[in-house]
Amino acid sequence: MPEGDTVWQTAKRLHTALAGKALTRSDLRVPKYATADLTGRTVLDVTPRGKHLLTRIEGGLTLHSHLRMDGTWRVYANGQRWSGGGPAHQIRVILGTADRTAVGYRLPVLELLRTTEEHRAVGHLGPDLLGPDWNPELALANLLADPARPLGEALLDQRNLAGIGNIYKSELCFLLGATPWLPIGALPADRAAKLPAIAKLLLEANRDRPVRNTTSPVTNSSPNQTRLTAPAAHTPDLFVYGRAPRPCLRCDTPIRTADQGDGSRDRPTYWCPTCQVGPAPGPTSHRKTQHRTTN
Length: 295
Known about the structure:
The chain is α+β, with helices and mostly antiparallel strands and 295 residues long. It contains 6 helices and 11 strands.
């Protein structure tokens, strides 16, 4: 599932393949931009911003894309068979150079805009956990601005801090010892103060890993202590996400799951009813939010 670390990795692959090279092929399969021709222009850089990708191109243009739930970019050597990304009808963009071709599949957001107008696409985002603008004090202030809002919803709102998706939401709530439905204002002050640092640690620890792992960075069972260590071969990848009804890694209580809204859709949420305190729905309950969460 694309989250901030996945987007960072994607940007790195695209930058390595395209930056500094002139485009020999340009195919934007979106009606609004179908006639746009970028061939001959040099790709300047590919930059991640939260869950967004900004491909900057010579001439003051930026190709903005967003992966949402199942979009992906694949890079192929010229002459290599395009495999693994999906069927041809799901291709939304092709950018080719003399030796590499980048193909975007199932991209729900794809737009060409002036680089000077990138703020239209990403100006609403909060501090980026993996970006140069990271500001933990501002991120925490954003999160606490609506103290009645459920913790899980606040974490998913990219206007508060950029880069957290549904997996990290569940994992962070576990590490904080709070259910995703706990009003964020009810989170103990000492734990709230550590939230930005733990979130950043998890994304930074995973931005270069092929398989996401949230259990290796955290070696102490207390939500108040977190430090980074090398992963052990036997260590499970995640504390709670996707683990229901298997036992909790700390207390052996069966992990539970229910849906939690994010303003656009209900998403599966996982938690340990023993290790995490706060309100939670029943085994078959679903809770919808009245807030709007933006990407």
